[in-house]
Specification:
627 residues; mainly alpha; two-stranded antiparallel ribbon; 28 helices; 4% strand; globular
């Protein structure tokens, strides 16, 4: 399942949504004009005015709803009743949820999303919301936490991560905003009927107008449900398939679907209005629509896609069994002995075998080995550091401690920069961590530690985040040189925090072709080639040409390493991020070819490759396949 192809399909789905919305608007306008013509006769001036008013109501309704969701994933989760999962909790279900999400995030190469729980919902359901991975929020119901075992919860979360990675989240948010507009006529009619108009002199006419608005609005409701169903069903099948590809086991996801089908609460949410508006985002059908309006394939069909031999009578047997004793997820974990098996981290000086197609195939598509390595990373990470990354008070000193240099003189200058901006206490705490818990930390644990810290960090107020980013920038540049790790960490923080602060600004698919970014491509490849061969210009040139051959084989762009090294990348990101999805696949293969022209790359080069992919929204697992 190719990430870049799915991104391209998501972009085409967005275009199809615009067409469907336009057809719905035309249908509503014609229905309103017809109603006016029936009651008032055909007067072209009146009909023109009615058309303009109808369009204004629909347009303003959509703009209002989209503005209410401009906060991205957090705004959506909170509006639908989500309660943030605290950093420190004694709830075993919440701790298990956090561990599963962090494991999948590390394996997927994306920032850890913020977590919410729908506490009042006994049904088994979940959704992912946001404009980009940096802005993502995942919400699960209390029923899912209580009833699902670890494998089943992992399957549900992997399903939601598919929506995060494949661009479905931004489409889903836009769908909420767009559909609210075409429902406005119906909402207005319903509101007038609720308030009543019988006391006024024209009360009867007002009530008739409200009934007409409600009837005409039902056309919008009909179109809205059809649009959601047509867009959602295909994406849900893809998310199921992606979840299996992520976890490489079908039993977890299939078990969750069986529990939805077999338990009385199912997936149906209590608040029907909220459930209908968010129905296309949910893991399971939260409303109960079927046929033409169904936003999800039938449960039995979804289960049989995972377990072809499963039969309807087996589902009935499970219903009877669970009527006697409802399943408890944590108890099943103990009984089944569900636990991850850790692998080992590579040596610090390991060299990794890769090929360009292999790396492109791994983008947003974690393999079983990636999950084992993600588990190895989580288990190898000291519990004290994990706790520091998840604490609001200690997360900033931890991140700054990762940037402190081993050289005493440079470290002193960095601490001075931190003190000037964030205070002596923060700088002293960072220095203590660098000399203590962070001393000897394996290089492969650094960026995953930053990913775990991200949800806590992004909750800070905007002015404080600006100060933190300014401090990181000053510490990285205070010694006049920037290492690969310093650049990678600083750039990832910059991109991810900026996107979380202004999510809608980054919610778009690129459309540029490779030929329009030739100079940016050349700069990127030159930096990668130079970083991998700093003391051998001839070898670096061969690496550069190996990458250029992948993406611009007919162009003759001479190798010219930038004087400012890796910092030259700052100028190329906007143009390269604007590439269309399939062009980004070519770019990932080209960068990999440059980094691995001898067939192998170092751990430091792998970090740079992962940073390039992350900045350009092509998330890569934390360790490539190695041999």
């Amino acid at each position: 399942m190719n990430f870049f192809e799915q991104q391209a399909k998501a972009r085409s789905t967005s275009s199809r949504l615009v067409v469907l919305f336009a057809l719905a608007v035309v249908g509503i306008v014609l229905a309103v004009d017809l109603a006016v013509a029936v009651f008032l006769g055909v007067h072209w001036g009146v009909l023109g005015f009615t058309t303009l008013v109808t369009l204004a109501v629909i347009g303003l309704g959509s703009l209002y709803r989209m503005a209410s969701l401009r906060g991205g994933g957090d705004a959506v989760a909170l509006q639908f009743g989500g309660v943030p999962v605290p950093e420190e909790t004694s709830d075993r279900n919440l701790r298990r949820l956090r561990n599963v999400v962090e494991e999948i995030a590390i394996a997927s190469g994306v920032p850890v999303p913020k977590l919410y729980v729908l506490e009042d919902e006994a049904a088994i359901n979940a959704f992912a919301a946001g404009y980009s991975p940096s802005d993502a929020a995942i919400a699960v119901t209390r029923g899912a936490l209580d009833r699902l075992n670890r494998d089943e919860l992992q399957g549900v979360i992997a399903h939601e991560f598919s929506h995060v990675l494949n661009g479905d989240m931004r489409l889903n948010i836009r769908l909420i905003g767009v559909l609210f507009g075409i429902l406005m006529i119906s909402l207005i009619g319903r509101k007038i009927l609720w308030l009543g108009g019988g006391r006024s002199r024209n009360g009867a006419a007002v009530m008739v107008a409200a009934l007409v608005a409600l009837a005409v609005g039902s056309i919008g409701l009909l179109f809205g449900r059809m649009i959601k169903a047509s867009v959602s069903r295909t994406r849900e099948r893809l998310a199921d398939a992606s979840a299996v590809q992520f976890t490489r086991q079908t039993s977890g996801l299939a078990g969750a679907l069986k529990k939805i089908a077999g338990l009385p609460a199912g997936a149906r949410l209590n608040d029907r209005a909220d459930a209908e508006e968010a129905s296309h985002m949910l893991f399971g059908d939260g409303v109960g629509f079927s046929g033409l309006f169904a936003t999800h394939p039938p449960l039995l069909e979804r289960i049989q896609a995972l377990e072809p031999s499963f039969r309807a009578d087996q589902l009935e047997h499970l219903r009877v069994q669970w009527m006697v004793a409802a399943p408890a997820g944590l108890e099943e974990d103990v009984r089944l002995g569900l636990d991850s098996q850790a692998g080992g981290l590579p040596a610090r000086d390991a060299r990794i075998n890769v090929t360009p197609p292999m790396v492109a195939a791994q983008v947003a598509t974690p393999e079983p080995g990636d999950y084992l390595r993600a588990d190895a990373i989580a288990r190898s990470m000291p519990a004290s550091l994990r706790a520091l990354a998840q604490s609001r008070e200690t997360v900033v000193p931890l991140l700054l401690g990762l940037l402190l240099d081993a050289d005493d003189a440079i470290r002193t200058r960095q601490a001075t920069e931190a003190s000037a901006r964030l205070g002596h206490a923060v700088a002293d705490a960072a220095t203590a961590l660098q000399r203590g818990e962070l001393a000897g930390l394996h290089p492969m644990l650094r960026l995953p530690l930053v990913a775990i810290a991200f949800p806590v960090l992004r909750r800070r107020p905007r002015p404080e985040l600006e100060s933190i980013l300014d401090t990181v920038h000053a510490m990285v540049h205070c010694d006049g040189r920037v290492s690969l790790f310093e650049y990678c960490m600083a750039r990832l923080l910059e991109v991810q925090l900026r996107e979380s602060l202004d999510p809608r600004r980054h919610a778009r698919f690129g459309r540029r072709k490779p030929g329009s970014v030739r100079e940016e491509f050349a700069t990127l490849l030159a930096v990668v080639a130079q970083a991998g061969n700093p003391s051998d210009r001839a070898e670096a040139q061969r690496a550069y040409l190996a990458g250029l051959q992948r993406v611009l084989p007919r162009d003759h762009l001479p190798y010219a390493p930038p004087a400012d090294g890796v910092l030259a990348l700052d100028d190329v990101w906007p143009a390269l991020d604007g590439l269309e999805p399939l062009a980004k696949q070519m770019m990932v293969e080209a960068v990999t070819a440059a980094a691995s022209h001898d067939g192998r790359i170092s751990v430091a080069e792998a970090e740079l490759l992962r940073t390039i992919c992350a900045v350009l929204h092509c998330p890569l697992p934390p360790m490539l396949e190695h041999g």
